[in-house]
Amino acid sequence: MLKTQDLSYWYQNANQPLFKNVNLEFEEGESYAILGHSGTGKTTFLSLIAGLDTPKDGAILLQDQSLKKIGLTNYRRKHVAIVFQAYNLFTYMSPLNNLLTAMAITESKHAGDREYATQVLRDLGIGEDLITRNVQHLSGGQQQRVAIARTMVCDARLVVADEPTGNLDEDNTQAVITQFQSIAHDQKKCVVIVTHELDVAAMCDHQYRLENRQFTKLA
Ligand SMILES: Nc1ncnc2c1ncn2[C@@H]1O[C@H](COP(=O)(O)OP(=O)(O)OP(=O)(O)O)[C@@H](O)[C@H]1O
Ligand SMILES: [Mg+2]
């Protein structure tokens, strides 16, 4: 579904790219983990496939059409859902309104469906008592689950997450990864997760490590 074609990126110095001539393919219905030391460019890579930044060289293709051609704004709105480490929820809203707003903005096929949004939140352990509370008054793990719920109620086929379990305990980590696997396997979306945790990566269908400016397939 999503392909990188000789993708290269650097911030200041073209002679020291973070990665160079990367050719990778990501399929729907599959989950991918990206590992790598701090500072190797994992977040940068996610921001490129999420359409938040543009390649310095090469291209990113969605179903053989370049993101450039699709248009980054259109791509971000319609085709990609992002879970940042800092959640990026609308902080002045409740979990329910976060989902309803995202569904409206992205023109999801579920737009306006409160019942559906409530059910998805409930499935992730965000019950009646929490769905109308301001998200700032939720715990980190609860906010993270709202962010994941938000990707589930939108139609975007690509879900990218930057260290989604970075500050979760073991139980919450397990729950979050199970949810991402369900997004891939049941919703048939493509899930790309950056993580430092080997056991989190092991729960994904495919693992890559970013080192020496290249992505190496593990196992
Ligand atoms: N806007 C920027 N301008 C210049 N350099 C940057 C910018 N953003 C990141 N960098 C540098 O690019 C490199 C890669 O950053 P990136 O955030 O992609 O790493 P990462 O692999 O996600 O690291 P971590 O595991 O610590 O999150 C780092 O050396 C970082 O300092
Ligand atoms: Mg990072």
From TrEMBL:
PROSITE patterns referenced in this protein's UniProt entry, alphabetically: ABC_TRANSPORTER_1, ABC_TRANSPORTER_2
SMART domains: AAA
One Pfam family cited in the UniProt record for this chain: ABC_tran
KW Transport (keyword) present: yes
InterPro entries: AAA+_ATPase, ABC_transporter-like_ATP-bd, ABC_transporter-like_CS, MacB-like_ATP-bd, P-loop_NTPase
Gene Ontology terms for molecular function: ATP binding; ATP hydrolysis activity
Gene3D superfamilies in alphabetical order: P-loop containing nucleotide triphosphate hydrolases (3.40.50.300)
CDD domains: ABC_MJ0796_LolCDE_FtsE
Protein's UniProt keywords contain Translocase: no
Keywords assigned: ATP-binding, Nucleotide-binding, Transport
Residue ranges constituting the ABC transporter domain according to the UniProt record: 2-218
UniProt record similarity statement: Belongs to the ABC transporter superfamily.
Annotated protein name in UniProt: ABC transporter ATP-binding protein
